[in-house]
Design goal:
It contains eight helices and twelve strands. The two termini are 36 Å apart. 32% of the residues lie in helices and 19% in strands. The chain has helices at residues 21-36, 55-68, 83-95, 106-112, 193-203, 216-228, 259-264, 269-279; strands at 8-11, 40-45, 73-78, 99-102, 118-119, 122-123, 150-153, 160-165, 169-174, 182-185, 208-212, 235-239. The protein has two domains: 8-81 and 242-278, Rossmann fold; 83-185, Glutamyl-tRNA Synthetase, Domain 3 (Glutamyl-tRNA Synthetase, domain 3, Alpha-Beta Complex), CATH 3.90.800. By secondary structure, it is of the alpha/beta class. The longest helix has 16 residues, at 21-36. The protein binds glutamic acid. Residues 12-14, 46, 197, 211, 215 line the site of glutamic acid. Glutamic acid binds at residues 12-14, 46, 197, 211, 215.
Protein backbone atom coordinates (compact mmCIF):
# COMPACT_ATOMS: atom_id res chain seq x y z
CA UNK A 1 0.00 0.00 0.00
CA UNK A 2 1.17 3.51 -0.72
CA UNK A 3 2.21 5.58 2.25
CA UNK A 4 -0.44 8.15 3.18
CA UNK A 5 0.48 11.64 1.95
CA UNK A 6 2.27 13.79 4.48
CA UNK A 7 0.29 16.84 3.35
CA UNK A 8 -3.51 16.74 3.55
CA UNK A 9 -5.33 19.93 2.74
CA UNK A 10 -9.01 20.61 2.28
CA UNK A 11 -11.44 22.64 0.25
CA UNK A 12 -14.42 23.51 2.44
CA UNK A 13 -17.10 25.44 0.59
CA UNK A 14 -20.52 26.11 2.09
CA UNK A 15 -23.36 25.41 -0.34
CA UNK A 16 -25.12 28.69 0.38
CA UNK A 17 -24.63 30.24 -3.04
CA UNK A 18 -22.53 30.03 -6.18
CA UNK A 19 -18.76 30.23 -5.89
CA UNK A 20 -17.19 33.49 -7.01
CA UNK A 21 -13.73 34.35 -8.19
CA UNK A 22 -12.46 34.89 -4.63
CA UNK A 23 -13.35 31.33 -3.64
CA UNK A 24 -11.82 30.01 -6.84
CA UNK A 25 -8.55 31.78 -6.13
CA UNK A 26 -8.33 30.50 -2.54
CA UNK A 27 -9.07 26.94 -3.68
CA UNK A 28 -6.57 27.22 -6.49
CA UNK A 29 -3.91 28.34 -3.97
CA UNK A 30 -4.86 25.32 -1.83
CA UNK A 31 -4.25 23.06 -4.79
CA UNK A 32 -0.92 24.71 -5.61
CA UNK A 33 0.26 24.21 -2.04
CA UNK A 34 -0.90 20.60 -1.92
CA UNK A 35 0.84 19.84 -5.21
CA UNK A 36 4.05 21.55 -4.15
CA UNK A 37 4.09 19.39 -1.01
CA UNK A 38 3.24 16.19 -2.91
CA UNK A 39 -0.02 15.99 -0.97
CA UNK A 40 -3.74 15.62 -1.44
CA UNK A 41 -6.88 17.67 -0.94
CA UNK A 42 -10.18 16.60 0.59
CA UNK A 43 -13.42 18.25 -0.43
CA UNK A 44 -15.64 18.96 2.55
CA UNK A 45 -19.18 20.11 2.01
CA UNK A 46 -19.93 22.47 4.93
CA UNK A 47 -23.65 21.86 4.73
CA UNK A 48 -24.68 22.15 8.37
CA UNK A 49 -26.38 25.49 8.28
CA UNK A 50 -29.97 24.68 7.37
CA UNK A 51 -31.93 26.14 5.66
CA UNK A 52 -29.20 28.30 4.05
CA UNK A 53 -27.48 25.25 2.54
CA UNK A 54 -29.01 23.95 -0.67
CA UNK A 55 -28.09 20.71 -2.49
CA UNK A 56 -28.12 22.53 -5.82
CA UNK A 57 -25.29 24.78 -4.63
CA UNK A 58 -23.28 21.69 -3.61
CA UNK A 59 -23.79 20.24 -7.08
CA UNK A 60 -22.77 23.57 -8.54
CA UNK A 61 -19.50 23.80 -6.58
CA UNK A 62 -18.50 20.28 -7.56
CA UNK A 63 -19.11 21.15 -11.18
CA UNK A 64 -17.43 24.56 -11.00
CA UNK A 65 -14.36 23.31 -9.14
CA UNK A 66 -13.95 20.43 -11.59
CA UNK A 67 -14.26 22.88 -14.46
CA UNK A 68 -11.49 24.96 -12.91
CA UNK A 69 -9.29 21.85 -12.88
CA UNK A 70 -9.25 21.11 -9.15
CA UNK A 71 -8.81 17.53 -8.00
CA UNK A 72 -9.66 15.98 -4.69
CA UNK A 73 -9.84 12.66 -2.94
CA UNK A 74 -13.19 10.92 -3.15
CA UNK A 75 -15.67 10.63 -1.58
CA UNK A 76 -16.77 14.17 -0.82
CA UNK A 77 -17.30 14.59 2.93
CA UNK A 78 -20.57 15.97 4.19
CA UNK A 79 -20.80 17.65 7.58
CA UNK A 80 -24.52 17.05 7.60
CA UNK A 81 -24.11 13.32 8.26
CA UNK A 82 -21.48 13.73 10.97
CA UNK A 83 -23.72 15.00 13.76
CA UNK A 84 -22.98 12.08 16.16
CA UNK A 85 -19.26 12.84 15.79
CA UNK A 86 -19.75 16.50 16.74
CA UNK A 87 -21.95 15.45 19.63
CA UNK A 88 -19.22 13.19 20.91
CA UNK A 89 -16.72 16.06 20.76
CA UNK A 90 -19.20 18.21 22.67
CA UNK A 91 -19.45 15.51 25.34
CA UNK A 92 -15.67 15.42 25.54
CA UNK A 93 -15.53 19.19 26.12
CA UNK A 94 -18.28 18.83 28.70
CA UNK A 95 -16.43 16.07 30.56
CA UNK A 96 -13.34 18.29 30.63
CA UNK A 97 -15.38 21.16 32.15
CA UNK A 98 -14.70 23.46 29.20
CA UNK A 99 -18.26 24.42 28.22
CA UNK A 100 -21.48 25.72 29.77
CA UNK A 101 -25.06 26.19 28.60
CA UNK A 102 -26.03 29.74 27.74
CA UNK A 103 -29.57 31.09 27.62
CA UNK A 104 -28.68 34.62 26.57
CA UNK A 105 -30.01 35.63 23.20
CA UNK A 106 -27.90 37.08 20.43
CA UNK A 107 -29.89 40.29 20.78
CA UNK A 108 -28.96 40.59 24.48
CA UNK A 109 -25.33 39.96 23.62
CA UNK A 110 -25.24 42.62 20.93
CA UNK A 111 -26.88 45.14 23.28
CA UNK A 112 -24.43 44.36 26.12
CA UNK A 113 -21.20 44.42 24.14
CA UNK A 114 -20.83 47.99 22.94
CA UNK A 115 -18.65 47.24 19.94
CA UNK A 116 -17.67 44.09 18.19
CA UNK A 117 -13.96 43.97 17.35
CA UNK A 118 -13.40 44.88 13.75
CA UNK A 119 -10.39 43.68 11.80
CA UNK A 120 -9.48 43.24 8.14
CA UNK A 121 -12.83 44.75 7.26
CA UNK A 122 -14.54 41.84 9.02
CA UNK A 123 -16.84 42.37 11.98
CA UNK A 124 -16.24 39.71 14.59
CA UNK A 125 -18.63 38.31 17.18
CA UNK A 126 -19.22 40.66 20.15
CA UNK A 127 -17.22 39.62 23.23
CA UNK A 128 -19.41 37.60 25.59
CA UNK A 129 -19.55 39.49 28.93
CA UNK A 130 -17.53 37.41 31.44
CA UNK A 131 -20.00 38.33 34.21
CA UNK A 132 -22.62 36.25 32.39
CA UNK A 133 -20.60 33.07 32.76
CA UNK A 134 -21.48 30.59 35.46
CA UNK A 135 -18.72 30.11 38.06
CA UNK A 136 -16.08 27.63 36.96
CA UNK A 137 -16.85 25.59 40.08
CA UNK A 138 -20.49 25.13 39.03
CA UNK A 139 -21.16 21.71 37.47
CA UNK A 140 -23.01 22.19 34.17
CA UNK A 141 -26.16 20.12 33.55
CA UNK A 142 -25.79 16.97 31.48
CA UNK A 143 -25.54 17.34 27.73
CA UNK A 144 -28.05 14.75 26.58
CA UNK A 145 -31.02 16.63 28.00
CA UNK A 146 -29.76 20.03 26.89
CA UNK A 147 -28.91 19.74 23.22
CA UNK A 148 -31.67 22.24 22.55
CA UNK A 149 -29.75 25.09 24.13
CA UNK A 150 -26.64 27.08 23.23
CA UNK A 151 -23.35 25.92 24.72
CA UNK A 152 -20.28 28.14 24.99
CA UNK A 153 -16.60 27.38 25.33
CA UNK A 154 -15.03 29.05 28.36
CA UNK A 155 -11.92 30.75 26.96
CA UNK A 156 -8.79 30.87 29.13
CA UNK A 157 -8.78 34.61 29.90
CA UNK A 158 -5.44 36.31 29.40
CA UNK A 159 -3.90 33.40 27.47
CA UNK A 160 -2.15 34.39 24.25
CA UNK A 161 -2.99 32.10 21.36
CA UNK A 162 -0.54 32.34 18.50
CA UNK A 163 0.34 30.66 15.23
CA UNK A 164 2.69 31.41 12.36
CA UNK A 165 0.55 32.06 9.32
CA UNK A 166 2.17 30.73 6.16
CA UNK A 167 0.91 33.74 4.17
CA UNK A 168 0.73 36.56 6.69
CA UNK A 169 3.44 35.90 9.28
CA UNK A 170 3.01 35.59 13.06
CA UNK A 171 -0.54 35.97 14.40
CA UNK A 172 -1.66 36.23 17.98
CA UNK A 173 -4.71 37.10 20.04
CA UNK A 174 -5.45 37.24 23.75
CA UNK A 175 -8.39 35.12 24.89
CA UNK A 176 -10.96 37.15 26.81
CA UNK A 177 -9.67 40.40 25.33
CA UNK A 178 -9.72 39.88 21.56
CA UNK A 179 -12.46 37.26 21.59
CA UNK A 180 -14.66 35.88 24.31
CA UNK A 181 -16.55 32.69 25.16
CA UNK A 182 -17.87 31.44 21.84
CA UNK A 183 -20.62 29.09 20.73
CA UNK A 184 -19.82 25.43 20.23
CA UNK A 185 -23.39 24.19 20.05
CA UNK A 186 -26.55 25.90 18.87
CA UNK A 187 -29.97 25.52 20.29
CA UNK A 188 -31.23 24.27 16.94
CA UNK A 189 -29.29 21.07 17.69
CA UNK A 190 -26.29 21.74 15.46
CA UNK A 191 -22.61 22.31 16.24
CA UNK A 192 -21.27 25.80 15.60
CA UNK A 193 -18.99 26.31 12.61
CA UNK A 194 -16.02 26.57 15.03
CA UNK A 195 -16.68 23.18 16.59
CA UNK A 196 -17.52 21.32 13.38
CA UNK A 197 -14.48 22.74 11.62
CA UNK A 198 -12.03 22.00 14.46
CA UNK A 199 -13.38 18.45 14.87
CA UNK A 200 -13.12 17.75 11.14
CA UNK A 201 -9.68 19.27 10.70
CA UNK A 202 -8.50 17.27 13.71
CA UNK A 203 -10.09 13.91 12.86
CA UNK A 204 -9.32 14.10 9.14
CA UNK A 205 -5.66 14.70 9.88
CA UNK A 206 -5.55 17.96 7.93
CA UNK A 207 -1.97 19.21 7.92
CA UNK A 208 -2.62 22.65 6.40
CA UNK A 209 -5.74 24.79 6.19
CA UNK A 210 -5.83 27.24 3.29
CA UNK A 211 -8.71 29.71 3.47
CA UNK A 212 -9.54 33.40 3.30
CA UNK A 213 -8.07 35.88 5.77
CA UNK A 214 -11.56 36.73 7.02
CA UNK A 215 -11.28 33.52 9.07
CA UNK A 216 -8.09 34.41 11.00
CA UNK A 217 -10.10 35.24 14.13
CA UNK A 218 -11.84 31.87 13.88
CA UNK A 219 -8.46 30.17 13.81
CA UNK A 220 -7.67 31.27 17.39
CA UNK A 221 -10.90 29.72 18.57
CA UNK A 222 -10.34 26.56 16.57
CA UNK A 223 -6.81 26.19 17.97
CA UNK A 224 -8.28 26.27 21.50
CA UNK A 225 -10.81 23.60 20.53
CA UNK A 226 -8.20 21.41 18.83
CA UNK A 227 -6.10 21.56 22.00
CA UNK A 228 -9.05 20.83 24.27
CA UNK A 229 -9.93 17.82 22.09
CA UNK A 230 -6.32 16.58 21.99
CA UNK A 231 -5.88 16.96 18.26
CA UNK A 232 -2.74 18.28 16.71
CA UNK A 233 -3.10 21.58 14.99
CA UNK A 234 -2.70 22.05 11.24
CA UNK A 235 -0.59 24.79 9.71
CA UNK A 236 -2.60 27.75 8.38
CA UNK A 237 -2.36 29.80 5.23
CA UNK A 238 -4.85 32.68 5.15
CA UNK A 239 -5.06 34.05 1.64
CA UNK A 240 -5.64 37.79 1.23
CA UNK A 241 -9.17 38.46 0.04
CA UNK A 242 -9.85 39.64 -3.47
CA UNK A 243 -11.39 43.04 -3.88
CA UNK A 244 -13.37 44.50 -6.76
CA UNK A 245 -12.52 47.69 -8.65
CA UNK A 246 -14.00 49.78 -5.78
CA UNK A 247 -11.88 48.04 -3.16
CA UNK A 248 -14.93 46.14 -1.78
CA UNK A 249 -14.15 42.56 -0.89
CA UNK A 250 -15.79 40.06 -3.19
CA UNK A 251 -18.84 38.52 -1.56
CA UNK A 252 -21.94 36.78 -2.72
CA UNK A 253 -24.11 39.31 -0.97
CA UNK A 254 -22.54 42.18 -2.91
CA UNK A 255 -23.35 40.41 -6.14
CA UNK A 256 -19.79 39.28 -6.93
CA UNK A 257 -19.80 37.60 -10.31
CA UNK A 258 -20.00 33.82 -10.00
CA UNK A 259 -17.66 31.33 -11.63
CA UNK A 260 -20.67 29.98 -13.43
CA UNK A 261 -21.42 33.31 -15.05
CA UNK A 262 -17.78 33.74 -16.06
CA UNK A 263 -17.88 30.31 -17.64
CA UNK A 264 -21.14 31.07 -19.41
CA UNK A 265 -19.58 34.26 -20.73
CA UNK A 266 -16.95 32.10 -22.39
CA UNK A 267 -14.02 32.63 -20.00
CA UNK A 268 -11.61 29.71 -19.79
CA UNK A 269 -10.04 28.24 -16.63
CA UNK A 270 -6.51 29.02 -17.86
CA UNK A 271 -7.44 32.67 -18.20
CA UNK A 272 -8.78 32.90 -14.64
CA UNK A 273 -5.75 31.07 -13.30
CA UNK A 274 -3.40 33.43 -15.14
CA UNK A 275 -5.20 36.25 -13.30
CA UNK A 276 -4.69 34.50 -9.94
CA UNK A 277 -1.00 34.07 -10.71
CA UNK A 278 -0.47 37.75 -11.38
CA UNK A 279 -2.35 38.76 -8.20
CA UNK A 280 -1.05 35.97 -5.96
N1 LIG B 1 -17.20 26.71 4.85
C1 LIG B 1 -16.57 27.90 5.33
C2 LIG B 1 -16.88 29.05 4.42
O1 LIG B 1 -17.19 28.82 3.27
C3 LIG B 1 -15.06 27.85 5.34
C4 LIG B 1 -14.56 26.94 6.28
C5 LIG B 1 -13.07 26.90 6.40
O2 LIG B 1 -12.34 26.95 5.40
O3 LIG B 1 -12.66 26.74 7.53
O4 LIG B 1 -16.78 30.17 4.89
Amino acid sequence: MDNPPTYIGRLAPSPTGLLHLGHARTFWIAQQRAQAAGGQLLLRNDDLDQPRCKPEFAEAFVEDLSWLGLKWWHPILRQNIRLPIYQEALAQLHAAGRIYPCRRSRKELIAAAATAPHENGVRDEPIFPPEWRPAASETPPNIEDHLDCNWRFRVPDGTTVSFPDQAQGPQWAVAGRDFGDFLVWRRDGLPSYQLACAVDDGLMGITEVVRGEDLIKSTFRQILLLRALNHSRPAYYHAPLMTDADGQRLAKRHGAVSLRELREQGHKPAELIAGFETHA
